[in-house]
Amino acid sequence: MSHTQDNTSSPNVLDESLEDLYENAPCGYLSTWPDGRIAKVNTTLATWLGRDRESLLGRPVTDLLTAGGRIHYETHFAPLLQIEGELSGITVDLVTADGRRLPVFVTANVKSGADGTAVLVRITVQDARDRRAYEKQLIEARRHAEQAHARVQLLASTLQRSLLPPSLRPPDGMEAAAFYHPASADDVGGDFYDLFALSDRKWGFFLGDVCGKGATAAAVTSLTRYTLRAAAVYDDDPNAVLLNLHTVLHANHHDDEPRFCTVIFGVLTRRDDGFDIHLASGGHPPALLLTAAGEARYVSTEGGQLVGILPDPTFVSTRLHLAPGDTLVLYTDGLTEARIGSGPERYDDNGALLEFAAAHAPTSAARIVADLSKLLAGFGVGVEDDTALMALSIPPR
What we know:
alpha+beta; five-stranded antiparallel β-sheet; 34% helix
């Protein structure tokens, strides 16, 4: 019968001399006299440095350091040892015989004589090459990640800007303002708006919200925006425009990539000192009318259905007149569904938006958009979805 010897219990393996433990330890050891000259050094450290042990004895320990390390020793290492009697976790670079740098962690303490004066400084040196290389890799990886993140943000913001008009050009006698708040700088949202001329007396405008985010939402947003503009030139009846958009989106609908949106579309026609508005909605939150008399009310388009997903949707339209001092406000649900507080409550759960509008009427397009943007900023991280705002107003007489 054969027997397997348990080497872990063999006295020959465990019977190490103190000298062997010192000389061949997995870390470097050296001792210096109080004046900094090297008194003793183990084989491990001498091997790392590529130097003969005898050539090291009696030399100042600072000869082993880089120029920066010598300054560090004089200003930090030596004073700490003198005051505290010990130090740990100091990072320095030693210089090998061939001029290479050897990054190390240094721990030291002072051996004192009977009268309390220092007689020897004992120093342990840990090889930090792998640690230094790992830290460099982490720093490089973080730098690449930050660069990639910055590229994503730049691409997202550039693409988002391409989906929104750089500025609104309202007809003479009307003021217009818009604001877009992205919920994330890393992704492209699906909110959109526009204001454009149809003829000398008519202008089209719209504001909406495409389902989803990212590249797919951007593609649908672009398709939606240009389809609305083209459809309005062909037939400016708002219901017909939304039906045309529905036909285009529905034809491109895929179960894995749903292509639908909510949108409110209107046509402005100049009359007297204001504008008649023919407005239609496809499942979008109702517009707000803030009157010159200081009142606020919703422009009802209740019953309008989503655009692009149902086989035969219903769109609801209405007419109103925008007179001097009146302001029409359109918005997406990023505003009304902003979370307030830490609970589930949303901003407009109890009619807060209408109260806000009434408190700010009468107003102008620029003022109400500025006021609403400040309101959004106050929600902070509670704004979980992109938000678009657009307002049209007639200056008071």
